[in-house]
User: What shape does this take?
Amino acid sequence: MDLLVASFRIRFEESEELELLPGQRFSAFLASTQGNADVTIRVSRSKFEMPDGAVKVFDAPLIEEENGRVVISGKPFWCVWKDAESTIVVVFPPDGSGEKVLVMKDNSPVWDLFMNSTENAVDPLLYPLDGLILYYLSSGNGAIMVHASAVCYKGKGWLFSGRSGNGKTTIAKLFDSQGIEVIHDDRVILVKREGRWFIYSTPVYLNDVPRNAPLDHIWLIEHGKSNVSVPVEGAIATAMVLSNCIQQTWEGEAAEAMLSAIEDLTSMTQVSHLSFVPDANICNYLIYRKEEEKESVFAVALSMLRDGRSVVISAGGASMWPAIKPEDRVVIEPLTGAELRPGDVVALIRLGGFVVHRIIEVFSHDGHRYYKTQGDASPADEHPSEEYEIAGVVKEIIRGGTRQAVNPRRLPVGINRLMALLATLRI
Amino acid sequence: MIDKSAIPSRLATVVSKKIKGECLLVPLSSNIADMDSLYKLNETGAFIWDSIDGQRSISDIARLVAGEFEVDLEEAERDTIDFINAIEKFIQPNKR
Assistant: This one.
């Protein structure tokens, strides 16, 4: 019996006239036995005796939900042992069928699975064995397993990752209701093939089917009061993605390999932090901002600023009225390392463009410096920004063909909002 | 509290990775419930982390910092001690 998941061929070989009966959720991933397998798992019904020299290196107790709260029950779920030549995974399936043991000899493409059963038919993919087999296969081959939902929009794979409860399933449902293909809504594997990263679905639920798309954009999501996408890169992007990956960092070498894979992934993929409101507008927000033309113009402007050159953009909005009016052009100057202070007007990096707002407060928290910002004519921004979210400083605008300093002060917000609204209506 | 004669070394229970001048610290863990903490060091932090080799004292490292970032030695020593205290769980503060 072969299983094809995320472009990997997993072959199961049963012994002792054993019958393999994988759960229904694998139906669409089963394939006839042919060609070379990426891993062969020999399944026997015998019980595994832990070798004397083996030591327990990793423990995953059962995590249960009680009244909507996540509780670590302390009951055994699965754990990892290591001896001189093998990694040994022991699982305690919640169905009470007794412990199963997966033995993976270092650098060997043949693993052994001990089902500890007297039955004639066994399920070699009993939860949580399935996820662990996929995890070890992925991480051993430079692939990355992630808690994420993913959709395919016009041939481009968009990944939405976040902690449990942050909206992965919600966002997948919203895209689904717009007729956009959902690759998966819970767990995917990212695989690099011929220099490109791809998103693959994995079998989790009953009707899951194999789907994939080339990876285009990763969003780290959370619920918010408005739809705001902030591009991130470098170490922050790697850290944000890593914290949502399925990982077992008990061993330095494996942790380093995973870090390198994620660094490669984030160096060639756009990564953004996205706070969103769970309604259909989030789909339009992302689709609109992902239009290629807008995105490339923004990317050029951003790289010019990072090279130390100023850029001029159209204001287009009234949130900074009257210091900046919608018909003004705004001169963004690169950051020079000079301290940013309350009152300074800055260009914040947001998906597909800049948002020009004024710093109203600077504060430190946990060793990070944060800038609370606000449009002169709008309520304070929901999230304070860090320096990596600031593209540059705005000191001048061009109004009616004349350069002039941007007004250092703002009117009381109540007055501004009303006047900004009037100004917008006049256009 | 660590003093400037200490010779810190990095613990083997942390993996570090340089990314575009910054540095990520990933603590190794033996329990799935503890895998929540990642540390990101900025350019100065990454420089100090790189300088911790189990041979150099805090004073030695501060001299390197002062040379690299054009600050006076006293300030560099203060900053280096602050930084090492902040990442103390990844450091063995060996005494000379």
Q: What stands out?
A: Chain B has a mean pLDDT of 86. Chain B has one domain: 10-89.
